[in-house]
Design a protein that fits this description.
- Helices cover about 35% and strands about 15% of the residues.
- It has a single domain, classed as Rossmann fold.
- By secondary structure, it is α/β, with parallel strands linked by helices.
- Strands 3-2-1-4-5-6 form a 6-stranded parallel beta sheet, sandwiched between helices.
- The model has no long low-confidence stretch (mean pLDDT about 90).
Length: about 190
């Protein structure tokens, strides 16, 4: 299985790293791809593509089977998760491609570009957040319940760390030492 973990990684936290270990422990992972979204995706304040890439490279250094993809950084416009996963599938035609999301994103999936096609063609690995009942969330949603086999649920993950909380607190325990040193040297998230 090719596992794709997309996100802003603004900054990459220890939760992003621990999800890698957790998924590898529970699933047969051939390659784990971190796929940072380009700053073209959103108007909210992101550290530059360059800085987020450098921090992801620091966080993933030495992790076996990991690749950090710049695919969305290299696109001239935001194309959406579906287009990115199609390109990854083309590079790995014999493998299942699965995309990681937090359970808190399940209610928002219906707003994603090409959501029905995404759910029909790819697997979603759902990581628990806030100890919710993932299966119940899927079965109670009018869209998601149409695709029950598209979801691989990992309900026992529980790390209460987020990039948003880090940006508010600059808590050094929320990121790896290398990432913390990098963002302090470059003065990121201090405004």
């Amino acid at each position: 299985m090719i596992v794709v973990f997309g996100g802003a990684f603004n900054p990459p936290t220890i939760a992003h790293q621990q999800i890698y270990y957790y998924v590898r422990q529970h699933l047969d992972v051939k390659e784990f791809i971190y796929l940072p979204v380009s700053s073209l995706y959103t108007k909210r304040s992101l550290a530059s593509n360059y800085h987020r890439l450098q921090m992801l490279n620091l966080m993933t250094k030495g992790l076996p089977g990991v690749k950090v993809s710049t695919m969305e950084f290299d696109d001239p416009e935001y194309r959406g998760t579906y287009q990115s996963l199609l390109r990854i599938q083309e590079a790995h035609p014999e493998d299942i491609v699965a995309f990681i999301i937090g359970a808190d994103n399940l209610p928002k999936l219906n707003k994603w570009i090409n959501v029905r096609t995404l759910l029909a063609e790819f697997k979603f690995i759902v990581i628990n957040r806030n100890r919710v009942d993932i299966r119940q969330m899927i079965l109670s949603d009018p869209l998601l319940k149409q695709f029950p086999d598209s979801f691989i649920t990992l309900p026992d993950f529980d790390v209460a760390v987020s990039s948003t909380a880090f940006r508010e607190t600059l808590d050094p325990g929320s990121v790896t030492t290398e990432v913390y040193d990098y963002l302090m040297i470059h003065g990121l998230y201090k405004e």
